[in-house]
Design a protein that fits this description.
single chain; 142 residues; mainly beta; OB fold (Dihydrolipoamide Acetyltransferase, E2P); five-stranded mixed beta barrel; 6 strands
C-alpha cells in the first residue's frame, strides 16, 4: 500500500502548467512544510514535501491555495530519476489524491500576527492556535 497523509502550510504559491495533449490538463506543483513534533538540535523544525496535483485538484490549488495556507493532503508517494547535465538526480513527490483546508480562512489571517498587539500579550501560539485569555469570563458558546 502506498498512502501518505500530511498536514502543513504551503511554502509557496502553486505553479500551474497545462499538458501538451489534445485536451490540456492542468498540473499544479507546490510544496508544504510539516512541523516536527520534536525539535532537533540542528534547529530544523519542519519537513518539506513537494506535491503534484492533476486535473480538478490542480484547478482547486490554482484557485484557492496560497503561500501560508494550511491544508491536509492525502495521496501516494512517487519516486523517480531525471537527468540533468549528464547526472541522474532522484526525486520524491506526493501525488495529491485528496486535499482540503485545515483551518478557516479567518484563522489563517492571524498566523504570525500578534492579536494582542499593543497589549504585550499574544493569543496565538507557535502552532497557530488561539489561546483564550485568563481574564475572559464568558465564552461565545455553551
Amino acid at each position: 500500500m502506498n498512502k501518505i497523509i500530511l498536514m502543513g502550510r504551503l511554502t509557496r504559491d502553486p505553479e500551474v502548467r497545462y499538458s501538451q495533449s489534445a485536451n490540456p490538463m492542468p498540473i499544479a506543483r507546490y510544496s508544504i512544510a510539516v512541523d516536527k513534533k520534536i525539535k532537533r538540535d540542528d534547529g530544523i523544525t519542519a519537513d518539506y514535501f513537494n506535491l503534484v496535483a492533476f486535473d480538478r485538484h490542480a484547478t482547486f490549488a490554482e484557485k484557492y491555495l496560497r503561500k501560508g495556507t494550511k491544508i491536509a493532503v492525502s495521496g501516494r508517494v512517487q519516486t523517480g530519476r531525471y537527468e540533468k547535465d549528464g547526472v541522474n538526480i532522484p526525486f520524491f513527490e506526493v501525488v495529491v489524491e485528496e486535499q482540503e483546508f485545515a483551518e478557516s480562512k479567518s484563522a489563517s489571517q492571524f498566523v504570525g500576527e500578534d492579536i494582542g498587539a499593543g497589549t504585550g500579550q499574544s493569543y496565538v501560539d507557535e502552532n497557530g492556535f488561539m489561546q483564550v485569555p485568563d481574564d475572559m469570563e464568558e465564552l461565545p458558546f455553551n
